[in-house]
């Protein structure tokens, strides 16, 4: 039972276009679930931290007298976990995985980091000490035993990151065939954390129809934006995309000659850019990294944002 931060959006932001929204320090002691319910009722949600600027604003919002801990909107989940590569921009593809028989098993919800041995991958407790490989885009370094978090920090401080992606692993096995026979940490891990606000950036390049199917299969739907608060959350996620635009759940229908959200809402609030959106029959709505909506042919392959 601790104090907590709320994201305070309504009436607290400047005009759309790169604005910063306020964090509000709540001086009530509550459990995480109680704090989440309070924030959703009275503000927007528990605080989400997207970058170092957000972190500094979060710290600035505390009182000088208070030095203890406070809840934010990050939670550990036990279902719908996904595997990710540590290195930014490297996407995990299950069809290219090289799991050992019976893996991944996440035994006891404790094995969320991955080691490679004899070309196969095994989940292991992240606190296990093991050799590891760092990579900087050109060269690789084989290093002595550390835990997975220690290895990741070492690689990021001294090189680029832990070795990530099947192409890098193939290069490693070619250059260091003997080392590939002993267990080594690689940059693969099971992501068990999510933010309370439910916007989820998927860094996979898909067409609009593929993105819609993916969101409905794995989460709830492609994201809808019906007010300024939701716009602010989504554009913060869009800044972290690996493509210039991200798909939204926004579609044009020639039959009815209108734009609509796939979740069923009408397009009342909007943030279209100049000369947008137009009425081409094969277009869908996307957002650039600054939060502006644009129309795109639906066969473009972009990152996208799902809602839970």
Task: Give the helices and strands, then pairings.
Blueprint: E1 2-8, E2 22-30, H1 32-42, E3 45-46, H2 52-60, E4 70-71, E5 74-76, E6 82-85, E7 113-117, E8 120-124, E9 130-135, E10 140-146, H3 148-158, E11 161-162, H4 166-175, E12 184-191, E13 193-195, E14 199-206, H5 208-218, E15 221-222, H6 228-238, E16 245-253, E17 258-261, E18 283-288, E19 293-297, E20 302-307
Parallel strand pairs: 1-4, 9-12, 16-20
Antiparallel strand pairs: 1-2, 1-3, 5-13, 6-12, 7-8, 7-12, 9-10, 9-11, 14-20, 15-20, 16-17, 16-18, 18-19
Account of the protein in words:
With 308 residues, the protein is an alpha+beta fold. It has 3 domains: 75 residues, no CATH class; 110 residues, no CATH class; 110 residues, Mannose-Binding Protein A, Chain A, CATH 3.10.100. Helices cover 20% and strands 33% of the residues. It contains 6 helices and 20 strands. Strands 6, 7, 8, 9, 10, 11 and 12 form a 7-stranded mixed β-sheet that branches. β7 and β8 form a beta hairpin. The longest helix has 11 residues. About 4% of the residues have low confidence.
């Amino acid at each position: 039972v601790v104090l907590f931060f709320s994201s305070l959006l309504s009436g607290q932001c400047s005009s759309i276009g790169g604005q910063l929204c306020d964090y509000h320090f709540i001086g009530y002691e509550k459990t995480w679930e109680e704090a989440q319910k309070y924030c959703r009722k009275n503000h927007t949600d528990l605080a989400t931290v997207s970058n170092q600027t957000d972190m500094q604003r979060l710290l600035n919002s505390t009182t000088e007298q208070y030095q203890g801990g406070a809840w934010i909107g990050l939670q550990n989940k036990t279902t719908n976990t996904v595997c990710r590569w540590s290195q930014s921009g490297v996407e995990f593809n299950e069809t290219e995985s090289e799991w050992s028989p019976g893996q991944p098993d996440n035994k006891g919800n404790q094995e969320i980091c991955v080691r490679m041995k004899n070309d196969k991958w095994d989940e292991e407790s992240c606190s296990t000490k093991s050799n590891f490989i760092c990579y900087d885009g050109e060269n690789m370094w084989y290093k002595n035993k550390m835990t997975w978090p220690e290895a990741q920090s070492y690689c990021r401080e001294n090189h680029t990151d832990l070795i990530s992606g099947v192409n890098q692993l193939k290069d490693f096995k070619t250059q260091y065939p003997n080392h590939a026979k002993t267990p080594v940490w690689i940059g693969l891990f099971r992501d068990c954390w999510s933010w309370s606000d439910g916007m989820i950036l998927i860094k996979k390049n898909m067409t609009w129809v593929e993105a819609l199917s993916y969101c409905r299969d794995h989460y709830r739907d492609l994201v809808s934006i019906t007010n300024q608060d939701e716009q602010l959350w989504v554009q913060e996620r869009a800044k972290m995309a690996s493509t210039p635009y991200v798909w939204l759940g926004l579609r044009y229908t020639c039959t009815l000659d209108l734009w609509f959200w796939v979740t069923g809402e009408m397009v009342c609030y909007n943030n279209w850019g100049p000369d947008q959106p137009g009425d081409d029959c094969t277009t869908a709505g996307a957002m650039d990294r600054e939060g502006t909506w644009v129309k795109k042919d639906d066969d473009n392959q972009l990152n996208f944002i799902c809602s839970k």
